[in-house]
């Protein structure tokens, strides 16, 4: 009950008082007695949880709590919060409610791998942990938008026309025979439809494709932190939950080939973003390959979903995974927003990326890869710019500025310069995903331009 009654009928009310001094006396048959005063500290662990408590957010932000559940130290995240976390001042919920949405599309799963509702529930549950901590809200992609995707069941290219809008991210899923993998993210998509969303410092993907193993026996459990239930499937090859959470990390942007992710890597050996360096005690996070962290990434031993996964009972992202994503534009509580800071240029070859605002981007010397991101961007080229590439030129919005020292008087002369090539088809796996143009400014100074709408004389200016 909520009361403790002692010999003199005193009631110890621990609803309002948490400390009581109680004298305990004992007397033997010979009349000898002994007494001692004890202080009883009482805490009510049955207090109702705050209505705002977010179990998923709490588990992601406190990696050791999930491990404590698996080790039998706690029954739940709520128990840890009530008995330890609240007193320590840990956040039980995000300071800004998340509206981020990750949706799965099963249209290509014609073999029925995901007909089992428990498998679908496991995918949704894994996504919900990511949704609980991402504080971004991407612009919706409108119905009628057409884009290229890889069919997750056949591995073949497909063109999809949206019949309804995408709220944040849509992931097409299916299953095929996999070798040396338990899940595969089939590339990074969206550059054909909305290139400026995936080419700047603020990475905002909206579509991807993930293949699971039709030849694999997965463990299927949508509630891995509830040890009172049992998986609906007990396959020994891999956890479907961990595999899904892992592949979502790649969909979100931890993957080679994404401009801002590549820009933050040091020769492919480590990831050197501001947040990643901070969480690793001032050192870049070491990478074991282009898209995975080393198994233990810092001196305090904090592991990560992409570094450890099932090998360490890590079902959900840790702060290591969040730090990397924060460095490519995502918003998370407790991390520094990087989406308003363009990357810098040197005289060498760089990946120079703009923000969602209007940017002036000058790669200087070297052979540079340049992405403007959102906004009305100006791409600046001088007499010794090198052989550069623009990832996301938007006609009627962006402009290419050429230095007058190259001998051009106006944009018309740049457009008509000898050696230029305009508005050819750009293809991927045989599918046209946009247009490509080449501008020759002088020997050794060229611009390869990827774009969606045809370039014209108005795309250029001379200063």
Overall 3D shape = elongated
Number of strands: 27
Counted up, domains total 3
Distance N to C terminus? 82 Å
- The helix count comes to 9
Question: What proportion of the residues form beta strands (DSSP E)?
Answer: 25-35%
Class of secondary structure makeup:
alpha/beta
- Quote the average pLDDT: 89
Rounded Rg:
29 Å
> Low-confidence parts, pLDDT < 50 over ≥5 residues?
none
Helix proportion = 10-25%
Strands ordered across the widest β-sheet: 18-20-22-26-25-24
For the report, how would you describe the main beta sheet? 6 strands, mixed
How would you sum up this structure, described in words?
This protein has helices at 55-61, 63-70, 77-85, 117-133, 240-252, 259-264, 274-279, 319-326, 411-415, and strands spanning 3-5, 11-13, 19-27, 33-41, 102-105, 146-150, 157-161, 169-176, 183-185, 207-213, 218-220, 233-234, 238-239, 265-266, 270-271, 285-289, 292-293, 351-353, 360-362, 369-371, 378-381, 387-393, 399-402, 421-428, 431-442, 445-451, 460-462. It is of the alpha/beta class. It has 3 domains: 3-41, no CATH class; 55-326, no CATH class; 351-462, no CATH class. The strands form 8 sheets. The chain has a 6-stranded mixed sheet. It has a 4-stranded mixed sheet with strand order 5-8-10-9, covered by helices on one side. Strand 25 and strand 26 form a beta hairpin. Helix 1 (55-61) crosses helix 2 and helix 1 (55-61) packs across helix 4 (117-133). The longest helix has 17 residues, at 117-133.
């Amino acid at each position: 009950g909520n009361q403790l009654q002692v010999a003199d009928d005193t009631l110890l009310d621990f609803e309002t008082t948490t400390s009581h001094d109680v004298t305990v006396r004992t007397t033997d048959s010979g009349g000898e007695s002994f007494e001692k005063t004890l202080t009883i500290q009482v805490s009510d662990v049955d207090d109702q949880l705050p209505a705002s408590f977010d179990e998923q957010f709490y588990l992601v932000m406190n990696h050791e709590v999930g491990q404590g559940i698996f080790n039998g130290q706690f029954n739940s995240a709520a128990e840890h919060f009530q008995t330890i976390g609240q007193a320590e001042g840990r956040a039980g919920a995000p300071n800004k409610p998340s509206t981020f949405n990750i949706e799965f599309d099963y249209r290509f799963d014609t073999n029925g791998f995901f007909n089992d509702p428990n498998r679908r529930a496991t995918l949704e549950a894994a996504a919900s942990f990511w949704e609980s901590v991402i504080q971004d809200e991407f612009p919706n992609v409108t119905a009628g938008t057409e884009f290229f995707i890889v069919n997750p069941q056949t591995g073949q290219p497909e063109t999809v026309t949206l019949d309804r809008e995408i709220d944040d991210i849509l992931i097409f899923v299916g299953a095929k025979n996999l070798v040396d993998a338990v899940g595969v993210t089939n590339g990074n998509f969206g550059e054909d439809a909305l290139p400026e969303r995936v080419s700047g410092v603020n990475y905002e993907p909206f579509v991807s494709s993930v293949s699971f193993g039709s030849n694999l026996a997965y463990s299927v459990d949508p509630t891995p932190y509830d040890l009172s239930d049992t998986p609906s499937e007990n396959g020994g090859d891999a956890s479907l939950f961990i595999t899904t959470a892992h592949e979502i990390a790649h969909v979100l942007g931890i993957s080679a080939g994404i401009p801002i992710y590549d820009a933050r890597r040091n020769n492919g050996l480590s990831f050197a973003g501001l947040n990643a360096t901070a969480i690793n005690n001032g050192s870049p996070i070491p990478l074991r390959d282009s898209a995975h962290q080393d198994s233990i990434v810092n001196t305090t031993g904090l592991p990560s979903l992409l570094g450890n996964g099932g090998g360490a009972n890590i079902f959900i992202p840790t702060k290591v995974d969040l730090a990397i994503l924060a460095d490519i534009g995502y918003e998370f509580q407790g991390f520094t927003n990087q989406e308003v800071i363009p990357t810098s240029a040197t005289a060498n070859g760089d990946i120079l990326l703009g923000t969602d605002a209007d940017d002036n981007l000058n790669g200087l010397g070297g052979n540079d890869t340049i992405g403007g991101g959102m906004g009305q961007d100006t791409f600046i080229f001088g007499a010794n710019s090198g052989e550069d590439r623009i990832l996301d030129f938007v006609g009627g919005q962006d402009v290419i500025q050429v230095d007058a020292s190259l001998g051009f008087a106006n944009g018309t002369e740049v457009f008509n310069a000898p050696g230029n090539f305009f508005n050819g088809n750009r293809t991927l796996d045989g599918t046209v995903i946009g247009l490509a143009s080449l501008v020759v400014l002088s020997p050794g100074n060229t611009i390869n331009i990827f774009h969606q709408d045809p370039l014209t004389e108005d795309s250029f200016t001379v200063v």
